[in-house]
Fold each of these.
Amino acid sequence: MSSKSGDPCSGAILAVAKEIPKIQVVLDKKAITEIKKVEDIILSGNKKDILTFLKEKDLCDEKVFNFNSIYWLLEDKSFFLEFIKIMKEKCIFDYTTWTYSLKHEYTDGIMELLKSK
């Protein structure tokens, strides 16, 4: 079939679908058999699991925890507030973590941040 425009598909019906097929997307999850460091739980867990890990582990051990791994999670106010609570319970202060107090308008954190300098 050809047309005056030279496009062989112009004006032609190529196919008709009676129903749209359902598409399933399967994502490979990295199977972590042993969770030893914060990066492991970030890859396989949700925020609740991450907070539980942070409560249970020694955050002063650099093999287990690195602040740079979680700064992006502090954008979430509820996660930030829970993390600050854990940090206070463990008597740990991290200046960059506390700067998120400004973003979230967390007055106690802002005061602690100002006192630290």
Amino acid sequence: MAIRTSASQEVRRLVGDLSLEGPDGEPRREAAIARLAVIGTRAVRQLLEALNSATSSAQRAAILGALEAIPDHRTVEAVRALLGAPETFQEHRIELVGRRQIEPGGVLRIQAGQNH
């Protein structure tokens, strides 16, 4: 029988991959986002913790990308709080526009998911 890492350890590693910088880190960030989407709601708590402690707009954008792929109502308040912080709003808006998650008119669509 093979020994497998726990889901919590895997999520921790994947959340760490979201912080990788530069072009070499991009494929690992994208793979982490895809894997976290598969793990789903079990990853939300650690993603929200990482979002609160993120130190760069690139880290926050990657974490938001992972959260966007997981339909969970817990993410809505965190995103609202983040976007409400005046010092970070423009940074995130620029990151999200670059990823085409904000329409040219400035509309950001936040979907709460099905878990109310």
Amino acid sequence: MAERFAFDVEWHDQKSEQTYLLQLLVTPSESVVELFDPARKRMFLKRTHCPDVKLEQLFVGATVVLLSRALRIVGYADEYTRTRLSARRERCGATHVLLAPC
């Protein structure tokens, strides 16, 4: 079975001026993405082949454009994703710097 990662994302619909909280499900080995709406308990976007979305681009705070929708990643949707990607981030030696205005 292929690895599948889940992220909590926000999407702001400019027509209705509403912000939707969705779950982005990514299967990197198959280059497949899905969007699930937990509030309505239904699929927002069925399994779609999307080779442009790479796992390296997916981290909390990132914005991913998926089919002309800007999705902002606000968190991990499950513990498996959190543990796998935090371990990867530590191996890469990611460093965060906070700059304060003078």
